[in-house]
Amino acid sequence: MMPSPRPVSPGPEPQSPGEPQTTVQGGQRTSSVDARNTPREGARKLGLGTWKRAFSWASQHPRAASGGPGLRRHSSLFRSFRRSPEEGPAASQPQEPSGAVDGAGPQPSAGPRPEVLESQTEGKSVADLITERQLVAAFEQLQQLEAQLVAEKDSHTYEQDPTAFARRAMDVCLHYDALAAEIRAIVRETLGPEGVDADALAQAARVVQAEAEAHPASPADGDFLRTPRHWRQLWEDAVRQSAQERVQGTGLEGTGDAVGPEGVQGLAQLLAQLGSSVRGDLQKVRREVQPAYPESLPVWEAYLRAFHGAVAQRLQGLARRARGCEQLYLLLDWAANVYGSPDFLGTPDLALPAEPLPPLLTPEVWARLESDYTSFLELVAEHVKAAGAISAGLEVTTLRICARALGLFVPRLERAFLESEAVSEPQLGAYINTCEELRTSLLARFPGALGELEPTLQATTRTFQKHLLRSVQRKMQPLFRVLCTKSWLTHDALCPLMDKAVAFAHHLKHVAPPLAQETLQEVHRFVVREYLVQALRPRERFRGAERVNGAQKMTLDAQAIGSTFQGLGSEASWLDQAIPCVAEILGETYKDDICRHLEALIRGYPDIRRKHILAILALRRLGRSRNQSLLQHAQNLLRTAGSTRGHVLFEEIEVSTSTDVLVTCI
Fold it and tell me: Concatenated DSSP letters for 560-572?
């Protein structure tokens, strides 16, 4: 449900002495100029500037300079600006402009009747149109008033009463200012909890473009009415302000940016919350906000740069208050590996702009953080060096103290990270790299003294690797359910699985090579294993032509799986024949050749068990006598089968020895 239109105050309305000021009563919502401090301040600045420009023309005429009757008649206009800063300008009053809209005050007889202007917009004033967020109609009416006023000035209509021109010009300009304030308000509301008002955004964009076309350049005669108002820049400033408010408002309740020596876990949660908030806002911009705007406005680029600048400012504020080695590491790691990841926005349709974004942290700030982080490490090195200068034994003792401290820190870091909201595939890869680098570099430099660290670092690396595998397995598991069903025979159900594998392999490019290859092979094995689970425990049974077609489809799927993982760099080629062997048993039309296929399956995968052979033969339905012969032959082969050479596949596949299987095969 879109938010209802908000009233907008067009600016000060001249009133006669003693006339009461009009106010908003009851439950009526205040205008965007009243309710938002920043737009009101902007409108006040623009209004005062307009006042000066208007009377710069009027002051050149004798009647205006001498304070004639025309000037005294409009003394209420001056009084509207004699307000204290606390009271605010008269622009905060929801009134209509004088003369130009409602006909109040003296007007030159040569001017058009105000009733004509009202009839062109169904009797609604500019203030009413802005209040109802009919921005295009309000801008069109203001253009008419502006053109009329310029024409009257050029025809010397106001020669005898220059302050009347100034008064009407003031009204027009202040309504322009109110319209600008409403554009700012609409943009700032866009990412709020009330949802996206697509119509308001579209109208704001049309008005921004229309203003640029109506006022392309400053007029040669210096006429301030036709001076460009630069609403395109105003829109971009509003986008930046909106992003700034969203980013600065993200944080743990009661903590803000106060990261102290004890706030490592709080900083980690704050950074995770910041990343989640920015990601969600930018996804909303792409999916809901951008479609509401015309293509001529670079909405995505503007918001992306605005959020990038806001995040950079927030992160540099955190960097100034970071204390301790752990906090410095969290900030550097988040900037480099989380926000700096190409997958930070979480979906491939969120493309980055053609021009590169500036660094998240300035080179000076980044260098200072690295220097501070290095200083903490050099404190440890200084202790070791000083101990070594005394004796070799003391140096070894100091190193072992450091090793024990690091051995306690690594599991604590592991638990804190896995319990936080920051767990993601890029982050897990970064922590795997860190543990592996610590293990190899420290043990190479201090092989004797730091050997006790190796089991701790290896265990933490394995834990992170398991979480990385579980992450991709959770995403892929539901996609196996559609395999080996009758709808699978006519649809490419394997493609989503391969897409997940390719996306996951992209993360592994940033992981240390030995561990990346090992992890990729595990994903390869998982895909083949789960495919066989569906084949050996099908939800639907195939007979006749369906069984033959299913075997052919399995062969094609096996080729697709093998070629995909080979292209990704997997060296687990031993997995490639598992699915084809099962497919050949199911699809073989010459029953005597089934024994040969069964032999190839057992030779290639010696971890296969009797229960798996039973499940495969139950799918084929060859008859009791032939099944008994094949089963006996398979049992003889299994007794003489070689070792698995560390290749485990069928051993992890659970199949049930149901009554159907027993009756068919025994």
Answer: HHHHHHHHHT---
From CA 644, how far away is CA 524, in angstroms rounded? Answer: 17
Whether residue 368 lies inside any domain: the answer is no
CA-nearest of 339, 335, 386 to 361 is 335
> Residue 615 in contact with residue 533, Cβ under 8 Å?
no
Helices and strands in the chain: count of H runs, count of E runs: 26, 0
Q: Which residues contact 393 (CB under 8 A, 6 or more apart)?
A: none
Which tokens sit at 655?
């199949």
DSSP letter, residue 316? H
d(CA 456, CA 307): 40
Length of the chain counted residue by residue: 666
Enumerate residues 6+ apart whose C-beta is below 8 A from 526. Answer: 469, 473, 476
Q: What is the DSSP letter of 405?
A: H
What is the SS3 assignment for 322?
coil
Residue written as token pair 């304070």: 67
**Amino acid, single-letter form, for residue 201:** L
The residue behind tokens 């992170």 is: 464
* 274 in a structural domain: yes
Same domain, 506 and 640: yes
Which structure tokens are listed for 459?
A: 């265990």
Which domain covers residue 467, as residue numbers? 391-482
Report the half-sphere exposure of 654 (CA within 13 A, side-chain side). 0
Eight-class DSSP state of 93: S
Q: Please, are residues 435 and 457 in contact by the beta-carbon 8 Å criterion?
A: yes
The vertex-660 CA angle with 655 and 663, nearest 5°, equals 115
Mean pLDDT by 10 residues, the chain (666 residues): 38 37 36 40 42 46 38 31 35 39 38 37 78 87 86 81 83 88 90 85 89 80 74 90 90 50 73 89 90 89 92 88 78 82 73 72 80 70 69 75 79 84 82 84 71 84 92 93 91 92 90 91 96 89 87 94 95 94 89 87 90 87 80 85 78 73 51
Domains identified in the chain, total number: 4
CA 538 to chain centre: 40
Which tokens sit at 339? 């926000």
DSSP string, 362-429: -HHHHHHHHHHHHHHHHHHHHHHHHHHHH-HHHHHHHHHHHHHHHHHHHHHHHHHHHHSTT--HHHHH
Residue 58 main-chain phi, psi, to 5 deg: -65, -30
Q: Let me know: does 74 contact 163? Beta carbons within 8 Å.
A: yes
Contacts of 449 (CB under 8 A, 6+ apart): 395, 396, 399, 400, 403
As a whole number of Å, the CA-based R_g of the chain is: 38
CA atoms within 13 A on the CB side of 479: 17
CATH number of the domain enclosing 554: 1.10.357.70
Two structure tokens written together for 531: 């495919």
Question: Is residue 130 a contact partner of residue 51, using CB atoms and an 8 Å limit?
Answer: no
Q: Is residue 385 part of a domain?
A: no
Helix, strand, coil distribution of the chain in percent, nearest 5: 65, 0, 35
Residue type, 662: L
Neighbours of 603 (CB within 10 A): 14
